[in-house]
Every structure is written in C-alpha cells, then in structure tokens.
Amino acid sequence: MSAVVSANFLVFCLFLTVKPLAAQDNYEIQVYGAETVAPKTTMLELHSNFTVDGSKPLPGSQYTTDGTYPTNHALHETVEITQGLTSWSEVGFYIFTSSRSGQGVQWVGDHIRPRVRVPDSWHWPVGVSLSTEIGYQRRDFSTDTWTWEIRPIVDKQIGRWYFALNPAFERSFHGESVSHGVEFSPNAKISYDFTKVITGGLEYYASFGRLGDFYSFHDQQQQFFPAIDLNVSPNWEINFGVGIGPTASTDHLILKAIIGRRFDWSGHHEHGSSLSTQ
Amino acid sequence: MNRRDFLAGCSALATASMLRSPAEAFAQEPPPDVSLTIAPLELEIAPGKTIHTIAYNGLVPGPLIRWPLGKPITIDVLNQTNDPEIVHWHGLWIPSNTDGAMEEGSPMIPSRGRQRYSFTPNPAGFRWYHTHTYAGHNLKKAAYTGQFGCFYIEPKEDAGSYDQEIFLTLHDWNGYMGGGGDASMDVSYDYATINGKMLGSDEPIRVKEGQRVLFHVLNASATLMHWLACSGHAMQVIAMDGNPVPIQESVKAIRLAPAERIDVTVEMKRPGVWILGETRDDFRKAGMGIVIEYSGQQGEPRWVAPPESQWDYSQFARPGKSTEPDVRIPLVFRSKFTGHGDFDHWMINGKSFPKTDTIALQQGKRHRLVMRNESTDDHPVHLHRHTFEVTNLDGVAISGLMKDVLVVKAKSTAEVDFIASNPGMTLFHCHQQSHMDFGFMMLFRYA
C-alpha cells in the first residue's frame, strides 16, 4: 500500500470514528445529584471503570484511529477529592489514571470542579446546582487536551423514586474539537429504593455533538448503565453498574464501581451530645 | 386508614354535633376564666423576618395561664382558622373528653366554632397547652405553628425561693423536608426562637448580681431536641415536666426533647452581658438564644460554650428499684422505610395507628410500660392524662423521677410505671409530630 493510500485510509478511518467531545469519557461515570458536600467535610471517591469491549488499536499500532490509546480492556481509576466549602458550595479535584496490559499505570490528567447549589433555605421544589469543570488530559488518551464543562444539575427524591438530570455543555480549548464549539452531553438517572440499603436504577450518559448540529445517532455517544447504590451509611457511597453502549462511537461494555468515604473534620461529637447535630 | 383519615371522620361527627351557633351555645353560660382565640398571625421573629403562622390570641407563646391548684377553670377557645382545631392540656389529670385529643374522644373545634373546656387543674407544676392536630407533610400546620403556651398550676404552698421567675419556650420555624441522619427524611428548619424571638431581637432578661432566677423551660418544637446553656452559669435542675426531681443536680447544660419541660434555678454571680442559648452553633445562629443582662452592664452579649455533655435522666432520680408493677405491657418501637424521599412510618408492636392494639388498663393497678426502641431514632414518648415514674433506663433501675414525656433513645430500652387512676381513653404517642402523624400512637382504655 503506497504512502498516499495509507494516509487517505487513515483520514477515512478518522472520519468514521469522529467522536463527540466527552470531557469525562469513561473515567468518572456518575450522574451528579444536586447536594453538595457539607462544610468542614471531605469526600474521597475512587471510580474504577473497566472497559470489557471498547476501542481497539489499529493493526500493528498501539493507538486507535484517532491517535489515542485503546480503551478495550483498560482499567480507568479516578481519584476524586471533594471539599465542602459552605453549606451551598464545594470544589472537587480529579486525578485520572489508566492501566492496560503492556502500558502499566499511566497518569491521564487532572480536572478541577467548583460547584454551587441553591441553598435549602430557598425552599425550591427540586434540588438545583451548577457545576463547572476544567482540566487537562494527555493527548495519548483524548483528542482534546484542555476541556471545559458546565453542568446544570436538577434532582428530586419523591418517596422511593429518585430523578436526576445533568444537561451538560462541553467545550474544547485545545484539540480536535476546538472548532466544534459547544457540545451537548446530557446525563440522567432514575432509581427506586427497593430497601433502605439497596437502590436500583438506570443511568444514561450521552454526547450528542455540537449544539444545533448534532451528529447522527451512529456517531453519538450513548450509554445505558443499570446500576445499584448501596446506602450502608451516611458516610459511605457505593455504586456499581454495567454500561452498554449501542452506538459505534461508544465503548460497548463497561463495568463501573464507585466507592466513596466522607470525612468530617468538624470534630467528633458523640451521638446525642450537647454538641452533636445527630 | 391513617391518622389523617381517622381525625377527618371524627371531625365530621363533632361538627354535626355542634350545629348550634357559637352565640346560641354560649349565651346562657357564665363568662370564661380564660379566652383563647386561634387565628393566623404574622409573627415578626426578628426585624425583617416574619413567619406566617397560627397562634393563640395573637401571641407566641400564647398567654401564660397561671392558676391555683384545685380551683376549677373554664376556658373558651374560638377557632378563627379554616381548619378544625383542638387544644390539648398537656400534663393535666383531666377527663378524656376534655383532654384535647380527638383520638380519646375530645371534640374538635370546627372552623369558626367555639369550644368550652371546664376542668379542675391538677397536678401542680409546669404544664402547657398546644394544638393536637395532624400535619402530615404540611409543615405549616399543627405543632409546626405557634399554637402553644405555658400553663402553670400553682401549688398550695410555694416556698418561692427565687427572685425572678421566667418562662422560656423554644420553637423552630419554617420546616422543610431535609435529609435525615439515618438516610430517611427529617424536618429541618430555617429559624429557631425563644419566646417567639430570635437571639438579639427580644428584650434582654435583666438580672442583678446575687439574684436567684427560676426558669421554666418548655421545648415546644414540633420535632427537634434542644440543648440550652447559660454561658458559664450553672443550672440547678429542680423539676422535670413540672414535677420536683428527687435529686437536684447542677448541670452546665440541659436537654429538652419536644414537649419536655425543665425547671432550673440559676445563681446570677457572673456580672456581664451573656447569651442563654442553644449549645450547638447552628441552632444558636438560627436564632435560639436570649440575652441575659446584669444590671449596670453593657456591651455585646458573650457566649461561653459549656463542655460537651450527654444527658442522663438517672442523675436526677434515686438509684435502685421502685415498687414492682401489677401489670407489664411490652411495647416495641420499629420504623417502616418508605423511601429516602419520605418520612419513615412507625409501628408499636408491629402496627401503626389507628391499627395499633388498644390495651386495657385495670383501674387502680400499677402498670409498667416495658419499652424497647429498635429504631435508629430517639422517641420522646408521652402518656396523656397520667404521670409516670421512670423505673428503668437501659437495664439500670431507678426511681422517683416523675414525668409525662420520656426520651427512649435509639436502640435502647426504658420502663415507666403509672397507676391507672384516671378512667377514660388514654393516648400514648411519640411527641415528634412527624412520628405521631405516621403511626407512632396507640390508645389505652380502662377495663
């Protein structure tokens, strides 16, 4: 195959695999609730996502068609540290890593995510917060290295049912999607409390592409995660899910787990004491 | 059927039985000793902060009723709201049809209607009166409103070894459904007040060095426990729920569950301007506090936090066993999960009110309620029309502590004894409004 034919083939492949921008991709797979972490409290979470069936390298290459490492059989571990600032604000920090056979554990990038919410005292009928996230990821793992996201969050718990909607908007500042402008990436969740401890539901993650000019369904990212939340303690957050991606641009099968632990720095008070609010 | 349905049915019956107009009904009767009017009120708890609520006689708390022990009293209550109402005379040994609980047979007061309550107040001490209606998910009704007031029944002999006597009522306002500690919903509030005012918005309590001040403290919150301290001043607990305690202990802070009352004396011997307030910063910032100002002292009120402490009823009781009961009644409290977005429902011996068993009491016999709280919430349980003796807390026998509300802590046991000496239907319930509304109630009847 001549060099010219090879180059044309690569361009053709890139065209076929054009991916909408998705700042989090499959590093942090989570639909946000409107609640923020309380002041003097830190939330430490580990997101572990294993791609059972994802993108594969080109023949003879360690990269996929868009020049990134393949996701197939990759384990993405993300450490998320969220510090509560006030009763209505927090800031989160992410460390993304990836490990795959033959590549070892690699640092992927970091994001920072401030968030504010509507205070309880406003008595809104739904929980509302606004998150913004900015960060860097290495070119080996993303076609866009500097990205920004703004994510309105609306949620509501009614009896045993829980609903959350995250209509997120993303923008690339450096990389292949810069010219795309703002892209639309909605997430949503519906769940049901089977018991006090076990909540089951469906999470939905998508990236439709640029605003006003969505990609065809084939090229959109679409993922559905049947998921379980275990409410074992107010101090722990546990979530498991299996993700199915039906479109060509989506990893087809992902296993995800989130383990979170809340640390209260306001001082330990014995339950029911004169200083305890529990 | 839940408590709301039960009350609605009873209310319709009561309305039908009161078809005479208020004027017609009372034209022939002598004037009452006390008149209470239930009506909406715009309550200014602080400059610029107004609560839309319902109150007695346009006051929060309602007017203090101070009445000699054993002297009959007549109280007329006019209901100027759009809903049926009822007034419960909390802690008094009076008949079921006057006690002010629909579940016992007291009539509701129809909207725009009037009810006359006539009884002889007994026993002496610090009692109170309050609405006893259903709120459910409407956190602007029932005990969430300003419908409460102090009722002091003067003993025949009052040593009066104090220089000032002050009534303090605690309340929380603007309730909303918030996340609970055990992952179900609880009620949270925007504001908290003492005597209807936020900290700094009321006139200070003016004292003189060397004075001994008697405080009668009532927690009229619909759902919250509160701790109070007096910035370095010790508080001598002399009575609980209006009944003298066997052992008067001095403490740095007192804890009151909803409906509990504590009488304390404070020796004023730290000249200055101080805050008597909630020990927890969040509640004090929400408004729960009042200023104590010594004569001749000026400046910003200061808060001195007491050391962290736990509340232990037994320090005010005699150690050791009380009289053995004639009858033991086991009661097990459990919750029923209804979703992280709702209040739990509550069961006594596996059943929620009105399906709870109505247990027969034997007149003149000593009954022991053997309570086991298997839930993760504390429950301030209240027995109507009787006073009980606390006889066991978590396996430790005590005696002499007489009350009508007792907190049965989460995952704990408690035992109380009472003599069945006041025939009639008798209500027993958790005094947390959201617990009683969702099943935590039962009735005793006399055999």
Task: Walk me through what this model shows.
The complex is a heterodimer of chains A (278) and B (447). Chain A contains 1 helix and 13 strands; from the N terminus they run αβββββββββββββ. Mean pLDDT of chain A is 89; it is low at 1-18. Chain A has 278 residues and is mainly beta. Chain B folds into 3 domains: 3-154, Immunoglobulin-like, CATH 2.60.40; 164-311, Immunoglobulin-like (Sandwich), CATH 2.60.40; 318-446, Immunoglobulin-like (Sandwich), CATH 2.60.40. Chain B is built from 5 helices and 32 strands. Chain B has helices at residues 3-17, 22-26, 96-99, 281-285, 433-437; strands spanning 34-46, 49-56, 62-68, 73-79, 87-90, 114-119, 125-131, 148-154, 164-179, 185-194, 205-207, 212-219, 226-229, 235-240, 243-244, 250-251, 253-256, 261-267, 273-278, 289-294, 318-319, 327-336, 345-348, 359-361, 366-373, 379-383, 388-393, 396-403, 405-408, 412-419, 426-430, 441-446. In chain B, strands 9, 10, 12, 14, 15, 16 and 18 form a 7-stranded mixed beta sheet that branches. The longest helix of chain B has 15 residues, at 3-17. Residues 12-23 of chain B have low confidence and may be disordered. The A-B interface holds A 35, 120-121, 123, 156-162, 193, 195-196, 199, 231, 234, 269-270, 272-278 and B 174, 176, 178-179, 181-184, 188, 190, 227, 229, 253, 255, 279-280, 282, 306, 308-311, 337-342, 378, 409.
